[in-house]
């Protein structure tokens, strides 16, 4: 037990406790239980603390070193630190007696922090943290002091001060956010961030980034302050801000994944996938084993694509995506200023690449127009350039539909000319084709017919990476613009007349989206739906007619986490998987499918015109039977189609009346044009069913919208899909050892034979077999002949002598 230093027996005897040995922890516990009975001891310890405090302040004023001054004595420093912690613990019980103690402690630490020993400085800081945690001192008063303590070079003190600042601000905003206090604290950190002192600005940036990452200060002011740190005079501050902006999405995804494993299932609904029950039955019970395997794989692809689409739609509706670049007040000015810094800076190449990535990410996210950026990228587009995949990913990210195609055309042509040619390496060709596909996904107007047909020829390459990239490009244009492809590469597109939108073209909705689904509700849900029958007949390999069984709904919950994990670039993977099935179907029936397809399109159009002409002609006996026969046959003659087309063209008024009747029917069902929550829920269900049928019918993939593409981050690793990189010696050796794990230890063949317990081999049995006498004599004679031959062959033939 340590005696209470400086406490004489006189005051102890006055209080009735003479010659009692007390330590500071025991005295502290007793003072908490009986504060009024220990006021004398409190005054003594407080006076001792003030005297020791004056000694250290005089030392700091006289500039004594820690070796020759008062701080050289470790006992004095320990006594001061113990009394500081003691008084900090008992301050809540003596608010009047120790009213000046917190301010004196903060002033002492502020004045002489640099000259104090590290141990004493750490314990005094702990005492001050204790006072702040008990709300005796406001965080606003101590925030500059703790930010200053982080710049002293003491690692333990820096960790203590940083964690205290972050946790105190988090605790302050836990229940509700006080904007006035937060704004005052933010102003302190923003002022430190704008200073020229690199150490203070760095600690301020780290604190702001941590609070923003933890979603404590998740506002526009903090995001803009971090973004403006990219223009700091210190390169370290600039690199820190750039790296935070680039890595924020990765941190965000990790946090979402960890949160999803804990409680995502409780808060959010799992996306439902609606698949036709008839297609499920055919995939499991009809056809050969090979055809059922193909149909099962196609069904799984449809389920995965539907889950992905529903998950993306739910994420876009809840606005869960976030990046600090989203809240830039002047995104165009930020990009232009950062691009001018990129052009004039003398930093190393890695820093320039970080600036380039931030510029491209901001341009793609806000759909900005920075025309000088693409010629700047064009200088670095070479296959031998360092970090070329990151550079190409940045080029793809900066492309969007608001940029004029003429501005990107030189960059696009250089990528084609530098990467995709016969003398280029297969890795470069694969990367080039993948980059071309990603750019055309955002700007399809850049592609020409001759260029696309030339690039499509790489599908016959023996390299898997090149052929897969070429097939993915073909699958993209099957959906975007099938007319640019050769007829054998078109397959069976969903819309044969699809065209990319012209530059500046915008689709303006004039009504509630997908409200027409309420009108065709019976057709989508009904058992005799012809469109679902056509989709099922196209999917089946048998080619038989559809049965009239009832169509149920097959729901697949998104329960397991493994099924839900789909890469950000899952469309490309689905393209590669779909190509093999598409080509096999094309080789079997090419022309016949085109004929059937055109006839089916004509049949669908005839149904629409028959409704109009039927309303004008009136009901006739026998028309129902003819229509039933036509619906079963699903083929109509071209002459009937032309006649009905002419009849429909001549009845414009009937078309208008029919459209008005349909709209009035929809509005009447939706209570005079006012849609309720039930209607919107029904629209969502019908939309899911329609997308399920479309996913089963189409072979390619759904083109994402421009908003989804702007949010989507291009992964450079996906541009190198299926590319086999050259392995070094350690990696090759690891592969060899991995292949030998299941092998047993090597043994000679004789050792294996000796351990054999399954009987004799056939050769051993032949040696023991009984032989007749004639066979034995023949074998002995044969062995003698062979022995004589071996002996004669050993002598060298010298030839005849030429002289005697």
TrEMBL record:
GO terms for biological process: protein transport; ribosomal large subunit biogenesis; ribosomal large subunit export from nucleus. It is found in: Nucleus, Nucleolus. Keywords: Nucleus, Protein transport, Ribosome biogenesis, Transport. GO terms for cellular component: nucleolus. It comes from the Eukaryota. Residues 86-461 form the SDA1 N-terminal domain. Residues 1-33, 282-319, 489-640, 747-804 are annotated as: Disordered. Residues 519-532, 547-611 have a biased composition (Acidic residues). InterPro entries: ARM-type_fold (IPR016024), Sda1 (IPR027312), SDA1_N (IPR012977). Residues 282-310, 765-782, 789-804 have a biased composition (Basic residues). Residues 489-498, 613-630 have a biased composition (Basic and acidic residues). The keyword Nucleus applies. Belongs to the SDA1 family. Required for 60S pre-ribosomal subunits export to the cytoplasm. This is Protein SDA1.
């Amino acid at each position: 037990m340590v005696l209470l230093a400086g406490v004489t027996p006189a005051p102890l005897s006055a209080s009735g406790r003479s010659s009692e040995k007390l330590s500071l922890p025991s005295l502290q516990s007793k003072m908490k239980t009986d504060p009024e009975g220990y006021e004398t001891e409190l005054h003594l310890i407080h006076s001792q603390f003030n005297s020791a405090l004056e000694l250290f302040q005089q030392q700091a004023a006289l500039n004594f070193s820690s070796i020759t001054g008062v701080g050289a004595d470790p006992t004095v420093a320990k006594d001061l630190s113990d009394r500081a912690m003691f008084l900090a613990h008992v301050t809540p019980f003596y608010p009047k007696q120790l009213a000046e103690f917190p301010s004196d402690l903060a002033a002492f630490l502020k004045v002489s922090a640099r000259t104090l020993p590290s141990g004493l400085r750490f314990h005094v800081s702990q005492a001050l943290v204790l006072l702040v945690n008990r709300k005796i001192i406001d965080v606003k008063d101590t925030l500059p002091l703790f930010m200053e303590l982080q710049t002293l070079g003491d690692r333990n003190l820096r960790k203590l001060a940083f964690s205290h600042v972050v946790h105190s601000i988090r605790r302050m905003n836990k229940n509700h956010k006080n904007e006035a206090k937060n704004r005052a604290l933010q102003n302190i950190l923003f002022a430190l961030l704008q200073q020229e002192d690199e150490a203070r600005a760095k600690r301020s940036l780290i604190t702001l980034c941590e609070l923003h990452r933890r979603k404590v200060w998740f506002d526009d002011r903090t995001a803009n302050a971090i973004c403006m740190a990219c223009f700091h005079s210190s390169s370290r501050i600039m690199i820190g801000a750039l790296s935070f902006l680039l890595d924020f999405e990765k941190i965000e995804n990790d946090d979402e994944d960890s949160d999803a494993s804990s409680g995502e299932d409780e808060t959010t609904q799992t996306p439902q996938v609606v698949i036709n029950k008839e297609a499920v039955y055919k995939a499991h019970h009809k056809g050969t084993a090979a055809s059922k395997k193909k149909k099962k794989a196609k069904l799984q692809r449809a389920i995965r694509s539907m889950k992905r689409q529903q998950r993306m739609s739910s994420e876009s509706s809840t606005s869960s995506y976030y990046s600090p670049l989203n809240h830039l007040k002047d995104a165009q000015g930020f990009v232009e200023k950062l691009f001018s810094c990129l052009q004039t800076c003398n930093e190393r190449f890695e820093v320039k690449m970080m600036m380039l990535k931030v510029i491209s990410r901001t341009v793609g996210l806000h759909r900005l127009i920075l025309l000088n950026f693409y010629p700047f990228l064009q200088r670095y587009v070479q296959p031998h350039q360092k970090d070329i995949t990151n550079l190409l990913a940045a080029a793809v990210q900066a492309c969007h539909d608001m940029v004029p195609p003429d501005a990107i055309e030189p960059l696009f042509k250089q990528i084609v000319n530098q990467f995709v040619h016969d003398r280029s390496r297969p890795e470069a060709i694969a990367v080039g084709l993948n980059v071309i596909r990603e750019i055309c996904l955002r700007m399809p107007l850049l592609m020409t017919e001759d260029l696309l047909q030339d690039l499509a020829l790489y599908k016959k390459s023996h390299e898997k990476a090149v052929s897969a990239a070429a097939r993915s490009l073909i699958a993209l244009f099957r959906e975007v613009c099938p007319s640019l492809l050769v007829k054998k590469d078109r397959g069976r597109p969903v819309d044969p007349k699809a065209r990319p939108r012209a530059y500046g073209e915008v689709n303006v909705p004039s009504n509630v989206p997908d409200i027409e689904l309420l009108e065709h509700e019976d057709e989508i849900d009904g058992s005799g739906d012809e469109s679902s029958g056509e989709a099922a007949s196209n999917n089946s390999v048998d080619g038989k007619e559809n049965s009239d069984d009832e169509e149920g709904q097959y729901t697949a919950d998104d329960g397991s986490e493994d099924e839900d994990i789909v890469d950000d670039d899952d469309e490309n993977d689905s393209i590669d998987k779909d190509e093999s099935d598409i080509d096999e179907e094309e080789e079997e029936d090419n022309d016949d499918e085109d004929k059937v397809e055109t006839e089916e399109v004509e049949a669908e159009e005839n149904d629409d015109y028959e409704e109009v002409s039927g309303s004008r002609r009136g009901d006739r006996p026998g028309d129902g039977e003819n229509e039933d026969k036509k619906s079963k046959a699903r083929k109509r003659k071209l002459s009937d189609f032309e006649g009905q087309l002419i009849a429909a063209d001549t009845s414009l008024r009937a078309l208008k009346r029919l459209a008005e009747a349909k709209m009035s029917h929809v509005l009447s069902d939706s209570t005079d044009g006012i849609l309720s929550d039930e209607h919107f829920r029904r629209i969502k269900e019908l939309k899911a069913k329609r997308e399920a049928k479309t996913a089963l019918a189409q072979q390619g993939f759904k083109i994402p919208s421009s908003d989804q593409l702007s949010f989507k981050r291009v992964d450079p690793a996906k541009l190198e899909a299926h590319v086999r990189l050259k392995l070094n010696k350690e990696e090759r050796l690891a592969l060899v050892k991995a292949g030998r794990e299941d092998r047993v230890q090597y043994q000679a063949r004789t050792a294996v034979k000796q351990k054999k317990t399954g009987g004799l081999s056939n050769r051993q049995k032949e040696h023991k077999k009984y032989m007749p006498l004639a066979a034995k004599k023949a074998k002995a004679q044969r062995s003698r002949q062979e022995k004589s031959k071996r002996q004669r062959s050993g002598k060298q033939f010298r030839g005849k002598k030429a002289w005697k």
